[in-house]
Design a protein that fits this description.
The protein has 128 residues and is α+β, with helices and mostly antiparallel strands. Helix content is 26%, strand content 50%. It has a 6-stranded mixed beta sheet, with helices on one face.
């Protein structure tokens, strides 16, 4: 069965929670956006499983405090209990002026677990 409009809204909202919890350095809430065996691959390494995922946003360097991740151009595909999401992202740092710290594409695999969508894998592909 193809993704419904409700599935797509839930997945885009999941991406928003992923970004907001990362920005806030809320490791447990960030890990809650993933399956128990979820994987995050980013510029600072590879994290697998709840304990490692909890550490990811908490390990950001001090100069990244106050960052904001913005996503756009969400493309969703899938059916049944699995889906793929691709979207652009931009990391902004707040200070006297906004600075673009990084930009690229998130490529995500998702699974429906206990009736809700979660990331099983998020891969960060940086531009340049």
């Amino acid at each position: 069965m193809p993704l419904t409009a409700a599935d797509k809204v839930e997945i885009v909202e999941l991406m928003a929670r992923f970004c907001q919890t990362y920005d806030a350095r809320d490791g447990p809430a960030f890990a809650d956006t993933f399956t128990d065996d979820g994987v995050f691959e980013g510029r600072r390494g590879h994290r697998r499983g709840r304990d490692a995922l909890t550490q990811q946003p908490e390990s950001l360097p001090d100069h990244m405090r106050g960052m904001r991740i913005w996503t756009s151009n969400h493309v969703l595909e899938g059916d049944g209990d699995s889906a793929q999401l691709s979207c652009y992202f931009m990391v902004l740092l707040r200070g006297r002026e906004l600075k673009v710290e990084g930009k690229g594409t998130y490529r995500c695999a998702l699974r429906r677990h206990d009736g809700k969508w979660l990331f099983s894998r998020v891969e960060t592909l940086l531009d340049g």
